[in-house]
């Protein structure tokens, strides 16, 4: 059996309420002959007689009353669906939920957001700062419209686009013996030295571990685990020990970069969003700004 058209169900409900095909047709902006034809088609599809047609009007049959009751529920559900879709559309048009890992949130995302806000003065935007694993989790759960991460690989279950490249660098305080070192560190020396590191799940921590494993030296040995890039930077300046941080964070003259031989500390900075979802509105605009404004754009999966 072919499903009835929604317009025919609306017409049926109105005729049941008004007792007149002509009045119902006028309300829906239909010609009466067209309305009569739609109702006859509906009866044929359902295999039921829905109206008793007399000179005084059209009255529902017992079967017609049952079908009208069910039609009302169908139309109410449809109205709820349309209202919900409109509410979601309004929310996406009026606001944007973004999450970013520490390095991106401190150095890159504010500039992209500033440009987006200048182009969209009424836009309400929320930025949540977390580590890369947490940002990926928020994106998978649909709790943010767009995320930015710095993990060494593309996170599973998400669509991703590389928006920039970053490089990590070993840093020490000026009082550390490595500050006067003339030859580069070996991967084994770095891996065997306790370092000030970010917490597990941080993109920086994962990148360092992956780079050292690729160099055959194993993961880092934590000296201190800290929850932000600024905390790591401050601990190095205070002389607590060496660390590997983003080159974007090397803004203090008290930090001394140290070369490492044979280790690639480059990493991609990626935008991520739920797999299969098409970005639209402010989220798509923000992604376009990130790709256009920064380094080496290259799509990944």
TrEMBL record:
**Keywords annotated in UniProt:** DNA-binding, Transcription, Transcription regulation
Return the InterPro entries for the record. Answer: LysR_HTH_N (IPR000847), LysR_subst-bd (IPR005119), WH-like_DNA-bd_sf (IPR036388), WH_DNA-bd_sf (IPR036390)
According to the entry, every stretch annotated as the HTH lysR-type domain falls at 4-61
Q: Which family does it belong to?
A: Belongs to the LysR transcriptional regulatory family.
**Designated name of the protein:** LysR family transcriptional regulator
Organism name: Amycolatopsis speibonae
């Amino acid at each position: 059996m072919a499903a009835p058209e929604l317009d025919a169900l609306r017409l049926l409900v109105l005729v049941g309420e008004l007792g007149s095909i002509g009045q119902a047709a006028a309300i829906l902006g239909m010609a009466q002959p067209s309305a009569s034809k739609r109702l006859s088609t509906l009866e044929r599809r359902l295999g039921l007689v829905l109206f008793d047609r007399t000179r005084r009007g059209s009255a529902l049959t017992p079967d017609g009353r049952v079908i009208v009751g069910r039609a009302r529920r169908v139309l109410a559900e449809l109205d709820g669906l349309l209202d919900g879709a409109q509410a979601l559309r309004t929310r996406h048009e009026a606001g944007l939920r973004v999450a970013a890992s520490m390095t991106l949130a401190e150095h890159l995302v504010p500039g992209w957001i500033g440009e987006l806000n200048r182009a969209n003065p009424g836009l309400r935007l929320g930025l949540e700062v977390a580590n890369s694993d947490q940002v990926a989790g928020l994106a998978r759960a649909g709790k943010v419209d767009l995320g930015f991460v710095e993990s060494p690989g593309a996170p599973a279950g998400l669509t991703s686009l590389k928006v920039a490249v970053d490089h990590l660098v070993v840093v020490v305080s000026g009082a550390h013996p490595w500050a006067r070192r003339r030859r580069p560190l070996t991967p084994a020396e770095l891996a065997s030295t306790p370092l000030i590191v970010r917490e597990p799940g941080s993109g920086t921590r994962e990148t360092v571990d992956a780079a050292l494993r690729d160099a055959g030296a194993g993961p880092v040995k934590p000296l201190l685990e800290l929850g932000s890039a600024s905390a790591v930077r401050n601990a190095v300046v205070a002389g607590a020990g060496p660390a590997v941080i983003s080159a974007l964070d090397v803004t203090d003259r008290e930090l001394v970069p140290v070369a490492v031989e044979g280790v690639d500390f480059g990493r991609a900075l990626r935008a991520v969003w739920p797999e299969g979802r098409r970005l639209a509105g402010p989220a798509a605009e923000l992604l376009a700004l990130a790709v256009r404004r920064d380094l080496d754009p290259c799509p990944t999966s």
